[in-house]
Amino acid sequence: MGVSTRSETETAPILGLPTEAVTAPAGGLGRHFGLSGRLFLITVAFVAIAEILIYVPAVANYRLSWLSDRIAAAQVAATVLDAAPGQPVSEDLARRLLAGVGARAIVVSGGGTRRLLSNAAMPEGVVETVDLRDDSWWDSIHGSWRTLIAPAEEPLRVIDQGRAGFDMVEILIDEAPLRAAIVDFSIRLLLSSLIIAATAAGLVFIVLQRVIVAPVRRLAHNITAFADDPESLERVITPSRRTDEIGHAETALAKMEQALAGELREKRRLAELGLAVSKINHELRNLLTTAQLLVDRLEGAADPTVQRVAPRLVATLGRAIRFCEATLAYGRATERHPQRRLVLLEPILAELPELAGLSTESRVSVREQVPSGLQICADPEQLSRALTNLVRNAVQALDAAGAGREAPEVRVTASRHGGVGSGFVTILVSDNGPGLPERAKAHLFAPFQGSMRAGGTGLGLAIAAELVQLNGGTLRLDEGVPGASFRITVPDWIPGPKELH
Predict the structure, then answer these.
(1) Which is the most buried residue in 121, 175, 190, 298, by most CB within 10 A?
(2) In this structure, what DSSP letter does residue 211 have?
């Protein structure tokens, strides 16, 4: 019996999405399918891919089983032939045996003999020889797909180990019944796979809908509702008792919304305060201007006391007007750009007791210790405002502390480090009071948060820190010293002609 092989290669059709789905806008699918719908489709797709990966070896295994069944039927036919050795088989019996096996011919070998059962002429060749005794998975997969895609008219030769006294059994079968059986198996497998995929996807969809999608939708709805009214604490999400990532996200979102709501309320209060400060500043400046005009008339009085006090009062009112226009500038968006230059520090410090608002009943004394001729590179008005806030805070703290074993005192000392133009000046404002409590140090330079005095606004240190920073310096609290001690460090810097513009 001759054997011939043939291989054919054909291109399988490529399955893909319709052109409309591929070219659709990115937002089109999102309008029809939310997170739940997409999750369901993805689950179905993954299950279908898994079924496809299972389908290939399943078809190959079904092909081997089908061929093994044909070999088993041929073994039965061989037993019939062996029952009448040496006698010819009738044509009717041969036809029925071959029809029961579904083969064109059956060849059995055993005991040194070889018997052929066939009712037709033997073909010139076969499309493929399948040896079930040594058939690899790859050969089985390749043969299955060749049968499905490109079946041949030539028969298929199948060989297997014989049993019951036979050494080997061979059969010649057509591929058409094998292909029909594989197609029927594929359809049944496809239907079962679709049922499994739909069931698995439905169960996964229901579970994920309750475990993930619904909490995520709750987060999204809360974010949208909070965005409509971010200052309302009623819109803050209430975290669930979940301990997974969604629970952590709910807790983090609640903290963020609470902090944001507080910040927005604080910003709104600051905006309202800025408007009120602007109105007060406008009216106060008008009152001070009127007072200055009245004092100007006193300069012509003949009273020696008036002559002595009037110039000082005029200077004080003028300073108060400028101070009113500048000190309350915190209510505006920004401070003006500092006009830094080398100025003597001693005249600025000499005005501190007066600018600090000391009354005649105050027991607090302010002492300045500054080397004669010490110069500092800063805007004198802004530096004076910063020092005034520090000294005023110290005086008010000492007055609030009450009487002690020693006289309350505020000391202002200054020293230079390095040469003029290349060094820096340090100003130390300290008092002999009880010092700052620990809870005040956390937000010491934050507006409206650093005040420890009843009725205080907490703006003094915030304004002082901002003014010192504008002049290129730093303001910090000295730790580990008696009382409260603030250190101002201002480096030397003389602007050039280009920088001035």
Answers:
(1) 175
(2) I
As a whole number of angstroms, the distance between CA 144 and CA 151 comes to: 10
Q: Distance between the two ends of the chain, CA-based, in angstroms?
A: 107
Q: How confident is the model at residue 16 (pLDDT cuts 50, 70, 90)?
A: very low
CA 207 to chain centre: 25
CA distances from 99 to 77, 96, 103, 126, 143 (A): 10, 5, 7, 19, 24
**pLDDT tens-digit series, residues 29-58:** 444 556 667 777 777 777 778 777 888 888
Helix (H) or strand (E) holding 490: strand 485-491
Quickly list DSSP for 168-209.
EEEEEE-HHHHHHHHHHHHHHHHHHHHHHHHHHHHHHHHHHI
Alpha-carbon span 385 to 475, nearest angstrom: 14
CA–CA gap between residue 389 and residue 352 (Å, rounded): 10
User: What's the CA gap between 332 and 270, in Å, rounded?
Assistant: 10
Q: Write down the pTM of the prediction.
A: 0.41
Residue 114, classed as helix, strand or coil, is strand
Q: What is the DSSP letter of 133?
A: G
Three-state DSSP string of 421-486: CCCEEEEEEEECCCCCCHHHHCCCCCCCCCCCCCCCCCCHHHHHHHHHHHCCCEEEECCCCCCCEE
Q: 449: which 2 tokens?
A: 């948060």
Report pLDDT digits (tens) over 380-408.
988 988 898 888 888 888 877 765 657 78
